[in-house]
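Can't paste images in this forum, so I'm doing it all in text. The chain is below; anyone willing to post the predicted structure tokens underneath?
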Amino acid sequence: MCVGVACLSVNDAVAKTLTTSYAPLQILFMRNVIALPFTVLLAFLLGGSSALRSYRPAAHLLRGALWVGATIMFFTSFMYLGLAEATALIFVAPFFITVISALFLGEHVGWRRWLAVLLGFVGVLFIVRPGGATFQPISLLPVATALVYALLMLSARWVDPRETVWTLLVYLTGSGALLGALIVPFVWVPIRAEDIWLFAAIAFFGTAGMTMMTQAFRVTPAVVVAPLDYTGLLWATLFGWLIWRESLDTMTILGAAIIIASGVFMIFRKKGVVV
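Text version of the structure:
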């Protein structure tokens, strides 16, 4: 799980580097096109031929659209925000999942988890600071990303239960490449030869990260591995400082700490570990 999170953090850092020259959609499209053959091979080796079959292709197409939308918004935020700041804000996705599940899916949510949700959004306010002199409307983009990502996670319920996580991985990558191909011609710019290895890096680290995190959830209880997702903020802070000399102010650090603490509480609470 930790290595998978680190790989996705490298993926984000490379994407932020590429946004200075390429549109987020083109970055995502190239990542999917390069990664798709390896994803199919990996799914076949680990899940067999059945992993390449879908019983509900439309559900995967919808999930692909959500993923494309979320990723484009997240990559766009890299053009204006620090890597760590954007990463901290996207960690509110679990809170959106809880709210949507309670309001629209009829799931029971106790008052302690509602309190954790409230505190999580308080953490967002510490980072975004609406109405303050440092407020940037673009700061809301990672929050919107988290909302769409929450919908993506919940949409997994529409996938046929006979399909494995490897099927989800293949069709998410494939549908992302297909949908991207329809609109990428409008933003396409020629790729410089020296940037090809960066696109290859995104495909490698993105696929490796998703695969390792998926496998971690398969072999270990979620209550053990899920909190480790927050180590991504440490990597984002490190990469942001090393590459762009970014630093977090006190309010952002405090907001991120509140979001992480609330998120970890919700994870343990859901598994019955916390009273």
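The chain has one domain: 2-270. The mean pLDDT is 90.
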